[in-house]
From TrEMBL:
It comes from Glycine soja. It holds the Pfam family Myb_DNA-bind_3. Residues 12-105 form the Myb/SANT-like domain. InterPro entries: LIMYB, Myb/SANT-like_dom. This is Myb/SANT-like domain-containing protein.
Amino acid sequence: MGGKNEKGEVMEWSVVNTKTFIEKFYERVKNGQLQGSIFKTTTWEEINKDLFEMIQTNYGVDKLKSKFNRLRQMHRDFSTLLARTRVTWEMESNEVNAPDEVWDELIKKGRHYKNFKKHGFEYDYDILGDIFNSSTTTGKLSHAST
């Protein structure tokens, strides 16, 4: 799922491309270029240029921002999953263990939880935590009060 480029061609986000994007993003976070939860447009353009040089794919700034937001939501959802009672995650094997009733309840809230049941968490959870935890609220504060 990557959307389309300006020529109308489908642009996929492979696991390798996503991991490369996360690495480039993380470099900027470590260098203090993240301001609150946003980057300057020039930083996004630099990341896009770096990715193009490494993977020969020009996603464009809008697609990078969308991917960033999807990764943030995925990290938030996985954190919510791990906070549940009777849920464990074996990082080495990337296996999430939970009773069927917990999975059933979560999948009713969002079908995307099926991916965690089948595949665990595909990316480096700690690095994404470093990226998002300073800019993402979790728990009771992660949902609007309305």
